Amino acid sequence: MSENFGVIFSSILDGLTTTIWATLGGIALTIVLAFAAGLGMLSRWLAVRWLARIYVEVFRGTSEVVQLFWIFFVLPLLVGFRLVPLFAGILVLGLNHGAYGGEIVRGAVQSVPKAQHEGAIACNFSPAQRMFRVILPQAVVEMMPPFGPDIMVIYGVELAFYLVLAILITIVMRALESAGAKRIGRMPPPRTKFLAKTQGGGV
Amino acid sequence: MISFDDVDKSWGPNHVLKKLNFHVKPAEKVSIIGPSGSGKTTILRILMTLENPDEGIVTVDGDELWNVERGRRIRRETTQMKLTRRKIGMVFQQFNLFPHLSAIQNVMEAPIQVLGMSKNEAHERAKGLLDTVGLGEHLDHKPPKLSGGQQQRVAIARAMAMRPKVMLFDEVTSALDPELVGDVLDVIRDLATSTDMTMLLVTHEMRFAEEISDRVVMFDGGVAVEQGPPQKIFQDPDNERTRRFLKAVLEH
Ligand SMILES: Nc1ncnc2c1ncn2[C@@H]1O[C@H](COP(=O)(O)OP(=O)(O)OP(=O)(O)O)[C@@H](O)[C@H]1O
Ligand SMILES: [Mg+2]
């Protein structure tokens, strides 16, 4: 039993590590994409604004499941290879939440008063310095309320969902195991439970 | 030092500057007065490149800042404009300090970022400037922790840190409580008497304008209706509109 428990425990741990990595990777990708999209939508160049807008609308307008389907099943047909499921997951998480985050970044940047832009121009800052030294540091504070719950809660919920799923599967497995063990009147050897069950039924 | 040649500016039907011709000599201290909406702020904002003229040429220290032909696409942030803009500093009515930076960081940031000055040097310069405006004790305070008068003096130090040739002051004491106005005016008076900076002040402090300026310009209806030495303008104006305006202002 203790050996069995060890296996269950290590598979939970495996699932947990994978989920944590996927979550962290997804968060990192989300932040990068959100800033790129948010600033892109405010760009001086029409083409950049359009590109950012199209990205945001497409990924906000379709469901994550559809996006996962495209990336995992359709994309391989186009490019000839399939992403490791973990990477496909990270990519979908990042692309989807990045699109929502883009709107948060845009809103926060636009909420910084015009007077701050003008103060920065009077200081002779270049457009990039104005954005990165003056506007963004103030906008980031604005982003925290919407971004905080977004990243923390949404990813947290997804993380919890994966964990509960992993635990449920393990519980079901253990129930099947003990049911099988009762029928044959002994502990099933680890890893050979299905074989043991059929053997037990056969005798 | 500053020249506006045939500068025109309107917002829709509101014709704010009508073929304005306006010139300022180096080191001259000029006060701009006039009723609300007469375009005083607009003149300063065009100089700071916060607003563009619809037509006309603006030069600073011999370099072109704006050269706009009516109907042509307006080009912002040209290299020429950026270089010319460095000669100009501005102090705003609402201070416009950066709230996420301390007083001294507000003053250090532009010399480091724009002039490429070392941190130590910028710190020295900023500390010196904040000392002169009486904020030596509050170097590390963030703007929201300072009074309006203190914030405005930090803003003056911030503009001075770039050593501009031209300084623009737009009603810099109108947002202050009356008891804080004096300290800020003292700082500007010091600058006016101790430096050869060209200064352009939009102000409603008539006594102060009379005291420090070489010339006073009265604006109304998009044109300079009268200008001259402060004694002349304040004591014996020729223009009827100037007389009416001063009477209204000085009655309070
Ligand atoms: N961004 C803008 N959009 C539309 N109208 C504007 C804008 N900026 C200024 N105006 C108009 O231009 C006119 C001149 O404005 P300006 O701020 O230069 O006046 P002012 O002389 O500084 O007045 P005050 O003494 O009230 O500060 C006003 O009628 C104002 O409503
Ligand atoms: Mg004004």
Briefly characterize the structure:
Chain A is mainly α and 203 residues long. In chain A, 86% of the residues lie in helices and 0% in strands. Chain A has one domain (2-199): MetI-like (MetI-like fold).
Integer average pLDDT of chain B: 93
Order of neighbouring strands in the sheet with most strands of chain B: 6-7-8-3-9-10
How many domains make up the coordinates of chain A? Answer: 1
Q: What is the overall shape of chain A? A: elongated
Q: How much is the radius of gyration of chain A in Å?
A: 25 Å
CATH top level class name of chain A: Mainly Alpha
Strand content of chain A: under 5%
Main beta sheet of chain A: none
Q: Which small compounds were modeled alongside the protein?
A: adenosine-5'-triphosphate, magnesium ion
The count of DSSP E runs of length 2 or more, i.e. the number of strands of chain B, is 10
SS-derived structural category of chain B: alpha/beta
Low-confidence stretches of chain B: none
The number of helical elements of chain B comes to 9
Biggest protein-protein contact in the assembly: A-B, 18 and 24 residues
Q: Would you kindly provide a written description of the structure presented here, covering whatever features stand out?
A:
The complex is a heterodimer of chains A (203) and B (252). Chain A is mainly α and 203 residues long. Chain A has helices at residues 2-40, 46-61, 64-79, 85-111, 114-122, 127-184, 193-202. Chain B has 252 residues and is of the alpha/beta class. The model of chain B has no long low-confidence stretch (mean pLDDT 93). The chains are: A mainly alpha (203), B alpha/beta (252). The interface between A and B is medium-sized, with 18 and 24 residues. Bound molecules: adenosine-5'-triphosphate and magnesium ion (MG). The site of adenosine-5'-triphosphate (ATP) has 11 residues of chain B, from strand 2 and helix 1. The site of adenosine-5'-triphosphate has 11 residues of chain B, from strand 2 and helix 1.
